[in-house]
């Protein structure tokens, strides 16, 4: 029933949310819808006309797009599992009350994700230069006989990007696992000790299943993050303002969108189409991950 | 299987929490550790379980010293206050999980789990997860998980504290029945003296990491060694009155002008505490007190009257528990009589004067 009072309360409520809604509509919903409309447009710069599925056809014929897609999926397939496993291992280790200096280690592992992007990129560029500290150290330890061309070899450039984003985001994921671990009733592990459950089984049969929801959450987040990978490939493996080096070995979908929009002759429609490709990939992969993690 | 503690100690750094406990638990005995919170009863249980290291003394289970033996190999099973069920496993998986690591084959596991489930009435719940069970059902699963391992000693750590009052009484009876069936040694920790009284063959009253008294429930009730045990065991609590020996009688300090006959020889002028259980006022006797009723609690079968001496307004009122007390009213004068032999006397140090 709508009395005068509830209507007034309703109006007040809408009035309070209105500024946020206007901003959301203007800067989120409108651009999203506009980009969907744009993805059906062809043409250069502001000169565009309706092209139907022309952009989608162009995708299938565009070797650079396919290359960027391959790179992005490679980063995803290799980096996300490594990072998730590493974050889990760190979290379990740091949750052990017998470990000394837990607080310091926890902070140290978490810090990279709040470090300034520019600072970290500059540091990585210098560390991984041909004569940088990383190569120097590896040479000194006789692990390698000549410097690794981190920036100039397509394979090593990918490795470098994977190292960089793993370094930056592992601690972020670890914090989720730590929070989840700290919510587990310690009696459960005491019960497991009395039950004679070996350490391996404690990890795989108790810890991992109990963290399943958090693992799913972080996997979906990391998948989305990696599909949108842009920062590192536009800074660390970039020179003279062009990212994705060498020879587009680290070109990602996001970087390609950026290039299409701001570096090449602007092709807004086609760039919008690629951004929708990312949206669809995110949707599909998240859906698949939710299905995989579903309780039987 | 017998359990023996020989001057068992536990210290965290300089803080000693278990200060030398000696105890002999005979095979098949139901032993209850009881005491106020912080008395060390749970710590003592966890030391027996192997979850806390033992700082000093010996722990012997079934004739074997167990101080350094891993928790998994002590032949014990434990039921936790929080139940500690594995939340991602069904009831069946929870109950069979430990057996997998004990080397049993799936057929044997299923047989043992089904047998325990039948004993505890869990058969219909086997495929549910803990979150779909009520508190009492979870408790039963935790007990079932302990039973399937066929332990030599069961350890219970405040297993009924998370249940509501009605369920607590129900589970208490189930645990008693289970002990009659299995005849396994049980060590049970509780802060609830009613649980201790109703379940135990032997009660161990602990305070500040020390044993205050060990004995059968009624022994502790009738013949406590000190004021602490006398006050802790029994509900409603024992009444304590300060008194002085004067002219061969007990002059009550709290009830000026009133005296009680002295049933044992004590030096003139000694200060004592007289302990009177609320239920001794039921029968006639040669001792009497003149009181005024302040509050009456009618429980149906029994009546609790809280009464004071006329002039006295300070201090605790005396609790009087009587069966024929439906006509008692607040403000009424009450003359209670009792057998003076049932009054317990405690010295200034709190120890019983015998």
From TrEMBL, chain B:
Keywords: ATP-binding, Cell inner membrane, Cell membrane, Membrane, Nucleotide-binding, Transport. InterPro entries: AAA+_ATPase, ABC_transporter-like_ATP-bd, ABC_transporter-like_CS, ABC_transpr_MalK-like, ABC_transpr_MalK/UgpC-like, Mo/tungstate-bd_C_term_dom, NA-bd_OB-fold, OB_MalK-like. Transmembrane segments: none annotated. One of its GO terms (cellular component) is maltose transport complex. SUPFAM superfamilies: MOP-like (SSF50331), P-loop containing nucleoside triphosphate hydrolases (SSF52540). Residues 3-233 form the ABC transporter domain. Gene3D superfamilies: 2.40.50.100, Nucleic acid-binding proteins, P-loop containing nucleotide triphosphate hydrolases. One of its GO terms (molecular function) is ATP hydrolysis activity. It comes from the Bacteria. Belongs to the ABC transporter superfamily. NCBIfam families: PRK11650.1. This is Sn-glycerol-3-phosphate ABC transporter ATP-binding protein UgpC. It comes from Stagnihabitans tardus.
